[in-house]
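Notebook, student rotation project (T.W.).
Task set for the rotation: take a protein with a known small-molecule partner, predict the structure of the complex, and write up what can be learned from the model alone. Partner molecule chosen: magnesium ion. Sequence and SMILES entered below by T.W., checked by me.
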Amino acid sequence: MHIVDGALSVPVLATGAVLGLIGVAIGLKKMDYDHLPQVGVLSAAFFIASYIHLPLGFSSVHLILNGLIGLALGWAAFPALLVALLLQAVFFGFGGFLVLGVNVVNIALPGLLVYYLCRHGIATSSPKGAAIWGAIGGAGSILLTTIMVAGSLALSGEAFILAAKATLVAHIPVMVVEGFVTAAAVLLIRKVKPEFLNISEDWEDA
Amino acid sequence: MTVLIETRGLSYRYPRRGEVLNEIDFKLEAGDRVALTGSNGAGKTTLLHLLVGLKKAKAGEIHAFGAQRREEKEFVEVRARAGFLFQDPDDQLFCPTVLEDVAFGPLNLGKARDEAMQLAHQALVSVGLEGFEERVTHQLSGGEKRMVTLASVLAMEPEVLLLDEPSNALDTKARWRLINILQELPQAMIIISHDDDFLDHLANRWVRLEDAKLFEDRRMIVPELRAVTV
Amino acid sequence: MTVLIETRGLSYRYPRRGEVLNEIDFKLEAGDRVALTGSNGAGKTTLLHLLVGLKKAKAGEIHAFGAQRREEKEFVEVRARAGFLFQDPDDQLFCPTVLEDVAFGPLNLGKARDEAMQLAHQALVSVGLEGFEERVTHQLSGGEKRMVTLASVLAMEPEVLLLDEPSNALDTKARWRLINILQELPQAMIIISHDDDFLDHLANRWVRLEDAKLFEDRRMIVPELRAVTV
Amino acid sequence: MSQNFEHSGTSWKGQRLKHDESMVDRLDPRVRIIVVSIFALAVVLSHDFYVLLLGLVSAVATAVIAQLNFKRTLRRVIAMDMFMIFLILMLPFTTPGEALFSIAGLPASKEGLLHALMIALKANAVVFALLALIGTMSAATLGHAMAHLRVPDKLVHLLLFTVRYLDVIGQEYKRMRRAMQARAFVMTVSKHTWRSVGYLIGMLLVHSLERSERIMDAMKCRGYKGQFYLMDDMVLQRQDYLFMMLSVPFFLLLIGLNFI
Ligand SMILES: Nc1ncnc2c1ncn2[C@@H]1O[C@H](COP(=O)(O)OP(=O)(O)OP(=O)(O)O)[C@@H](O)[C@H]1O
Ligand SMILES: Nc1ncnc2c1ncn2[C@@H]1O[C@H](COP(=O)(O)OP(=O)(O)OP(=O)(O)O)[C@@H](O)[C@H]1O
Ligand SMILES: [Mg+2]
Ligand SMILES: [Mg+2]
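Predicted structure of the complex:
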């Protein structure tokens, strides 16, 4: 869901850049130097994981995992995703340069919202409840991202409105897959390393 | 004798690395327990990976279970029938609990959930890990991890076992238990190990990788550090 | 003899795990080259971590370089004077280029940039890696990575070396180079290794961790699998 | 196509190792970043076809000079997200205006077609310029250059850490993925697949987190006190001034053409 350069109007680009900057600035501020290796290594792990392609009918989807990123990193998701998107744009020609701000906001903001909405849910005592909250986080972040991508397009031109609607429909299966995958990942992490899901809360205090 | 796996002229090279395997001819027959030795980096792991199609050979043929295997799709069946134990248990354990991990293989083979759980349970019993079902894989000791991975391979009821340094990271007691378990198993095996004593208890045939070639003999490094070919 | 590091009644346990170290008394004196052995999971790495304060002991005392060390602040000095080589070089090489990585320690010790560069360069020369300054760390081979980590420890001019399985993942040539370099170094060392031959070339004292206790002797597993204490 | 992506993601070294040295490599990284930024601005903000064509041609020319691997670059340029391609293809049919032709009864408008063409030109011009001028540096160099351009320190070091560990974690992922394959795992459309992939990702994160703890320990052992250092100096050379002198009139031309 990387928008390329040239598709969006100037006001949308500018808004994205400003919001992106704010998010990254807050993220950097919340992350002190001692957490750098942690965020960096996790960011690398997400980079690798987001290349996993899952078959879906005749085609395949690659995971975005922004729900899980949000849950794991909180505000630090902004700088982490900026780095990932920059690397993709610059070395793989994926996405664009001036749209980086919009792309970062479209992917990181839903992750952040999921972090605030679901982090208590995934820490509940019942594994089933946690899985459901994980699924909500995974699917919800994709839903939000899709809406924001469609919104960025629709705001950039009337002609995109139909396409924006199509985008929404086309991503329903992706939401299902992401929901499932995120729920499973949350279940595993809860069991194997429960400290993990509290990390971001520590930063809040710090 | 039934030939289970056979290679002809198998070669492999890594980019920016010399030849790792050079025209390897090898046969694994029913009842064989082959010790595969060679120094670090000799290409032992690579050879096993080629046999089950995890890496693609640069030249040569692989025949397994009665058919030539070339493509990914053909190797899927090979992997279902040849159980592969990896060098590092941490790479192999990715489910949260022991039971789920052991049941992963049978589920991949299309077994129903109940049956898979049943098989997993049996496999755990057979390696002496009854009662470990709900334990968290990541928190097991090295020896326990190794046994769980063995169980997860056995749960697939393979016809051949490919064991990559199975006695690594085991203390003396666990090592003996492993020897006993492996001795009782009827399958043909290829066992990679640097532990000659371990191999002495298990192997009935020795092969050795050196300079990218495979030799059908046994070279033993005796304590005085002289190399003798037996 | 100057005692460099000493522990008294040092104990440690992990959550969800039994005792790993139980009342360990240990002394490292100038000129000592201690081989620290023990099976996997015996607690060797944990012991070294305790010595430099990366983990906090549950009980017992640590004296290092003439003072008792209890708090994080006190251990900062210990870490500056005891160079720690980690088990996995990838954990230790976190800077993008070799020169930056090797100069990281001296810069943290408050050296000026030029002096740090100078020290880094010398350290690289001393491990035979002259000309590697601008290489990107993640593109080095396993042996080169190990040598760079050694250089980055030596650049801090430590008085004691703590080496955690330094010969892991080295091929024969690199392993010999490492042995030669270590033999020339004047520092007292603790060397963890499973490679007895490697230790034979370096150690002048052997200790062994078993069942959470430290023994001042050497147990060698001879090929016949009998355990003898030398 | 998906296979290629998975590959490029997990074997990160790709571009740099097989890259042939070229004139572009001798230019100062900071200059390259600034030039690309101005170029992207000039192209994206323009609505003039001559500007866009000139932009694309010059970007491709730079790519040739930079000796980009032709096949790999083309594959990457073509491989924009499927859904972007879909969007661009739909534009002619969703934009009202003078009908040019119609497919299956749907009229395609001239305005829509031009709009689609414009997006394609802009996107490709920027991508070529990015790959040629920045994609040819090592990621470490990119980080250093960003630091010299006053990008916040923490962000730069985050980038450097990410790049440093992409490979290590990529290898770990590959080993786990192989171990799954060895147990006859085949990805299908099923809950079993999704659950297993979720576990795989979760385990990868747990391993990564534990690695980051070990890295932090290693940093402490070397006296880390909350500060990183970048060692290299970047000094502008003759060829950098030359390149800038060539770029300025070119940008003036690009921008000026809009007003003719
Ligand atoms: N992905 C890779 N890229 C490049 N070289 C590789 C790769 N994997 C392995 N090698 C090299 O190929 C050679 C053979 O490796 P392999 O793992 O098969 O050795 P091995 O005999 O199993 O060694 P060990 O006893 O240490 O497990 C080694 O020199 C290794 O460094
Ligand atoms: N973070 C941790 N949480 C729980 N248990 C741990 C942790 N780290 C280590 N252990 C356990 O503590 C024991 C001692 O570990 P340690 O790493 O010190 O062993 P070691 O002697 O260095 O082994 P090796 O030779 O394999 O490196 C092991 O059983 C290990 O599984
Ligand atoms: Mg091997
Ligand atoms: Mg250890």
